[in-house]
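Q: Please design a sequence for this.
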């Protein structure tokens, strides 16, 4: 069975890592690159962990963390675009992918919360 959330988060992690590698020689973006890579890989790691939860509350917690990290990732991507370090195409590609993942996580969290509360 295809797991779109897992596949898309892995793609985001890989694409962000490639982007960060390509920006290492640019001055004044080292912290942004570090934070972006950290948040994007955290999205994927938490979604992977949620696939083998100890309980529904554990799964919910992992998805909530991934959702917050995804929103943070979107902010770092916007920062790189706003400072002229990435072009509009790369910005839109990564922003759209992160936004898709975040929306899936929001929906998943709502579904899990309903299951927990009933």
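A: Design:
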């Amino acid at each position: 069975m295809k797991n779109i959330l897992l596949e898309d988060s892995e793609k985001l992690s890989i694409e962000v890592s490639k982007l960060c590698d390509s920006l290492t020689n640019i001055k004044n973006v080292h912290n942004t690159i570090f934070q972006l890579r950290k948040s994007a890989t955290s999205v994927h790691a938490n979604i992977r962990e949620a696939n083998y939860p100890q309980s529904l509350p554990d799964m919910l917690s992992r998805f909530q963390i991934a959702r917050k990290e995804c929103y943070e990732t979107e902010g770092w991507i916007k920062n790189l675009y706003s400072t002229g370090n990435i072009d509009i195409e790369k910005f839109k590609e990564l922003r759209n992918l992160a936004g898709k993942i975040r929306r899936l996580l929001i929906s998943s969290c709502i579904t899990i919360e309903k299951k927990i509360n009933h």
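Q: Thanks. Anything notable?
A: The chain has four helices and no strands. The radius of gyration is 15 Å.
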